[in-house]
Amino acid sequence: MSRALTNGRPGHRDTGGHPDWCEGAHHCTANSLPSGEHASRPEVWITDIGRFIGTRYRDRAGRDRMELRIVLDLAEDERIAQAQCRHLMALACKVVSRAFGHA
Ligand SMILES: [Zn+2]
User: Fold this and answer.
1) Which of 31, 43, 50, 98 is deepest in the core (most CB within 10 A)?
2) Are 51 and 68 spatial neighbours (Cβ–Cβ below 8 Å)?
3) Digits of tens for pLDDT over the chain (103 positions)?
4) What are φ and ψ of residue 33, in 5° steps?
5) Torsions phi, psi of 18, nearest 5?
6) Long-range Cβ contacts of 43-50 (<8 Å, 24+ apart)
7) Residues paired with 38 in a beta bridge
8) What's the gap in Å between 9 CA and the centre of ligand 1?
9) Mapping DSSP to helix (H, G, I), strand (E, B) and coil, where does residue 92 land?
10) Is 20 within 8 Å of 27 (Cβ atoms)?
11) What is the pLDDT of residue 102?
12) How many CA atoms lie within 13 A of 45 on its CB side?
């Protein structure tokens, strides 16, 4: 997979041209919208439990962010499906807080 979230090289925080991981075209709005941002090609991981889609962004101030989407199959029972949704949200929040939060 090329030009996904990162190319493995140290990133640049320039606010001028596109970073080397920016997909350009319709993905990138850095030069077309006042609040535009550079965007990577979404990286998709298909796993046994679902699909994970990550996209990297950089705004005009040079701040980098990442969006992660998780797509899972839910139970047919509506109550269980709702519980699965809340559980995924709570679990994802907990894991990300532990990994990236401030102690
Ligand atoms: Zn760009």
Assistant:
1) 43
2) no
3) 334 565 555 555 444 589 999 999 889 999 888 899 999 999 999 999 999 999 999 998 899 999 999 999 999 999 999 999 999 999 999 999 999 987 6
4) -130, 145
5) -75, 135
6) 43/1, 43/4, 43/5
7) 58
8) 17
9) helix
10) no
11) 77
12) 10
DSSP 2: -
What does the block give as tokens for 96? 């990300």
DSSP letter, residue 20: T
How remote is the CA of residue 19 from the centroid of ligand 1, in Å?
6
With beta carbons less than 8 A apart as the criterion, state whether 54 and 66 touch. Answer: yes
Count of all residues that appear for the chain in the document: 103
DSSP per residue, 26-87: GG--TTTSTT-EEEBPPEEEE-SS-EEEEEEEEETT--EEEEEEEE----SSHHHHHHHHHH
CA of 87 to the centre of ligand 1 (A): 35
The conformation of residue 16, written as its DSSP 8-state character, comes to S
